[in-house]
Amino acid sequence: MNLKNLAIILAVLALPFAMRPVIASEIWIFAIFGLGTNLLMGYTGLLSFGQATFFGSAAYVAGYLLKYYALNAFLALAAGVGVGAFSALLVGYLCVQRSGIYFIMLTFALNQLFYFTAYQWTTVTGGEDGMPGIPRPVLFGADFQDPFVYYAFVAALFLVSLWAMKRIVESPLGRILQAIRENEVRAEAVGYNVPRFKLLAFVIGGAFSGLAGVLYAMLFGIVPLEAIGFVFSGNVVFATLIGGSGSLYGPIIGSFVFIWLSESVSTLWARWPLLLGVAFVIVVLFFRGGVVEAWSRLQEKTVSWRFSKPKT
Amino acid sequence: MALLETENLTKAFGALTAVSGVTLRIEAGSLHSIIGPNGAGKTTLFNLLTGTFAPTSGRILLDGKDITGTPAHRVAHLGLARSFQRTNVFPAFSLLDNVWVGAFACSGSWKGLLWKKTSKYSKVGERARQALADVGLAGKADHPAREISHGEQRQLELAIALAAAPRVLLLDEPAAGLSPEESRKMVALVRSLKGRYTIVLIEHKMDIIMSVSDRISVMHFGSLIAEGTPEEIQRNAEVRRAYLGGIAA
User: Fold this and answer.
1) Residue B43 belongs to a domain
2) Does A189 reach chain B within 8 Å, measured CB to CB?
3) What per-residue confidence (pLDDT) applies to B235?
4) Number of residue pairs across A and B with CB atoms under 8 Å?
5) Is the residue at B68 inside a domain?
6) Quick one: which of A62, A193, A286, B50 has the fewest CB in 10 Å?
7) How confident is the model at residue A103 (pLDDT cuts 50, 70, 90)?
8) 160-219 in B: which are within 8 Å (CB) of A?
9) pTM for the complete prediction?
10) Which domain holds residue A64?
């Protein structure tokens, strides 16, 4: 087992004791969301400002099924993954027809379309009030109301998601998506149907987002309207960038920084988003690869400092 | 027997006819060069052959089968691979990963696309290494493509196309922007590929063309004005006029 995996497992074990288990759960949920977003953003080079579309749709559908039909937890998760993937298929199909700024605007506009649908459809979604009363399921006799038990459930699913994403990015698909990011024209010329591969990245990213959405709904017992809003889409892009897009572990670190700051600093200082803004500017100006890059550069520095001989 | 043929191939961009009524026959196993002054339509012809653009009219036949209008990503699977005039590689990838992407595309089976580790495709990896070795870059397999010299990038450009194990190799000015020394290496490389692949070569440098080609087609203002062996082309008065702008005529 390598060092990174060890660090992740230690973090999973230690986190619920270092902070409230609810916050710890939220970190891993947001990390799953980030993993899916990063497949598009970091690996395929597609900046999507509409990831909340998939997260929110899945949360609403699974939340509805849990609330009114007392669906089994695993079925609810499967439904969420399915809804996330399917909504990503619809949105992605339209978006991959365009590139650059037009692509970004399309993801954003379609997100708004979903948002206003949820906003208006009050009988189902509760509109501005959100969809409250989503139960945490009972599974194998374990009481998910206990925050530690639910944390364990979330953490396990996060580890499975991380493992699955690792397999995906190390597969031919992962390399082809990166090839598209590096040079779309050449990728097409050597024999890859570029729009089809972009769509596949959307669908997989959507499935991860959907899983995160359902876990989020179960965690807080409510689907707030914000869960499908563009600010939420921006947050996940933001967290992924801070952590380091294009690296498997970047979005996990980003999620930790983002959720931890927003939950802990916000109680001390109401203008905490200022801090995030500063962090964002620093990342964009100096560390395009986010915390992951900053860390590896720091390591290089200390190594070369330790081993460099003074010039004579 | 002709492996690749075009019949009256025409491409118009608005009022400009970039390729006009081109009928070509590329014999299997030959090295067929296409020459012509800048703007003669050579690269556009390549873009038509590889499906980047659909022709306005005319047909393209591969092995007797009509492939007109087939999109670029499918043409690659039919066995047509191209290199580009302007270096067109995957900059952040290692050289090996660059050619791997080309080798995997046409490897026949994409089983395990989402799941299997790239390192587990031993045949694809082997072919990728072979392609790098063919162009003399095996020693730099792990270097990132953006850090090698321009000359080496031109070799890599070619290796990506080779990795697909194509039936027809379309080379668009492989020696573009190379120093005389690098250029000599490239000629030797193209010559070493001769006979193993059917090659269509676009080139400006006359010494290269005359020394490696089996047949030469000359384009001028979108049309073919001559075709023949290097000796025949050298003697052709119309070609000299087109190329030298009347100085020799």
Assistant:
1) yes
2) yes
3) 87
4) 86
5) yes
6) A286
7) very high
8) 160-161, 164
9) 0.91
10) 3-271
Q: Which of B165, B191, B207 is the last residue of a domain?
A: B165
Q: Is there a domain that residue B4 lies in?
A: yes
Q: Which amino acid is at A306?
A: R
Of B77, B90, B121, the CB nearest to A186: B90
Mean pLDDT value of segment A141-151: 85
Distance CA B214, CA B28 (A): 11
Q: Is the Cβ of A182 closer than 8 Å to some Cβ of chain B?
A: yes
- Structural domain includes residue B84: no
A175 reaches B (C-beta below 8 A): yes
Chain length of chain B: 249
Residues B133 and B70 in one domain: no
The interaxial angle of helices A147-169 and A172-182, nearest 10 deg, is 70
Hey, are the CB atoms on A190 and B110 less than 8 Å from each other?
A: no
Which residues of chain A lie closer than 8 angstroms to B84, CB-CB? 186, 189
Is there a single domain that holds both residue B96 and residue B159? yes
In this structure, what DSSP letter does residue B94 have?
A: B
- Cα R_g (chain A), whole angstroms: 20
The total of structural domains in chain B comes to 2
For residues B47 and B101, state if they share a domain: no
A168: CATH: 1.10.3470
Query: With an 8 Å Cβ cutoff, is A185 touching chain B?
Result: yes
* Number of domain units in chain A: 1
Q: Does residue B157 sit in helix, strand or coil?
A: helix
Expressed as residue numbers, the domain containing B109 is 89-165
Q: Are residues B29 and B134 in the same domain?
A: no
Confidence at residue A1, expressed as pLDDT on a 0 to 100 scale = 59
Banded pLDDT at B249 (limits 50, 70, 90): very low
Domain closes at, from B165, B193, B222: B165
My answer on whether B153 and B172 are in the same domain is no
**Distance (Å) from the alpha carbon of B102 to chain A's nearest alpha carbon:** 5
| B171/B239 same-domain check | yes
